[in-house]
Design goal:
alpha/beta; 11 helices; 41% helix; binds nicotinamide-adenine-dinucleotide; binds UDP-4-deoxy-4-formamido-beta-L-arabinopyranose
Length: 338
Amino acid sequence: MSDTILVTGGAGFIGSHTCVALAAAGYNPLVLDNLCNSDLRVLDRLERITGQRPGWIEGDVRDRALLDRVFAEHRMAGVIHFAGLKAVGDSVADPLGYYDNNVNGTWVLAQAMEAAGVQTLVFSSSATVYGDPDRSPIPEHAPCRPANPYGRSKRIVEETLGDWQAARPGWRVALLRYFNPVGAHESGLIGEHPQGRPNNLMPFVCQVAVGMHDRLMVHGNDYPTPDGTGVRDYVHVMDLAEGHVAALRQLQKAPGLLTLNLGAGSGLSVLQVVQAFERASGRAIAYEVGPRRPGDVPAYWADPSLAERVLGWKARRGLDAMCADSWRWQQGNPNGYA
Ligand code: NAD
Ligand code: WQD
């Protein structure tokens, strides 16, 4: 019998791709999601890709009674916890809502796991916990100075799960700090479909390519970077998904606390992404240079060497694959799963 893994937020962007990687590795994903930022029809797509429909529970991770029922009804080998809110601007407008969803949600989940005797947890953290780093590449021991409520919600969860693992040394906890996830499954059947106007670069570029916007606004070209535009560490979502499987496998070998960067280990500028996307899509991406976006950091990228040493994981898919796969998904699904 294959191990069942509870995937909270598994209907979302990274969670759905991780369901594919879990199935490929012989695990049995069971998705729990309240659909606040996703679409149930993703399950049909997952079934087409993997030949296996993931288990499904509609509900909120803060619903302790629901979690108790789920853990009573399914023997779970571990939990991958994606469920959370991720829009930095919304977190500034509604900090308590963000702390409730992201922090309290994780605490309720961990308490339900403890009661059920499930002690293996992989948590979606973010490079945003570093804030504006002193230098790149960023190692895991760099200081954490999150600059907004979203980032602080991730850091609070990291610290409190660290306390919890110290108090319960039998627990197996991985805190995975993702850099900038982009791309889509190579089938083009699942991908990222932001609600409303995208904040993030790659979905916006995709929408410019299909004519939904007449141009990209480049948020500043006067940064101290090679071409003046912001530099980030873009990591293909399927590489990220496989990183979760590697983390789970490592946790199944030994109890402990792992804090790991998941990034490609190199920085790319906004204009490099635009040019690669033009090559992948064969479409011109019109852009205009505007002012810097408030709160943006000029440049940062990961030192992912610890993840390679501990998990044997490293990002394999490059910028061209990220753009080609994003474009395939965008072209085939201009309205997401609708
Ligand atoms: P997403 O919004 O696509 O997925 C999150 C999923 O969680 C959605 O399906 C949503 O409906 C669900 N959800 C939210 N709150 C819930 C709750 N209380 N109960 C049950 N379900 C709930 O986002 P994503 O990009 O897939 O991100 C997944 C996780 O990774 C998040 O925790 C996010 O903060 C983190 N992360 C994302 C990025 C990124 O750039 N995408 C970077 C670093 C970290
Ligand atoms: C990338 C670069 C922009 C849009 C965010 C969150 C972070 C993490 C990942 C969750 C920057 C530039 C963007 C546009 C542009 N998420 N840009 N025009 O800001 O690095 O990170 O997502 O944990 O917490 O803050 O990603 O994709 O928004 O921006 O010029 O229309 O693209 O200025 O240099 P960011 P992004």
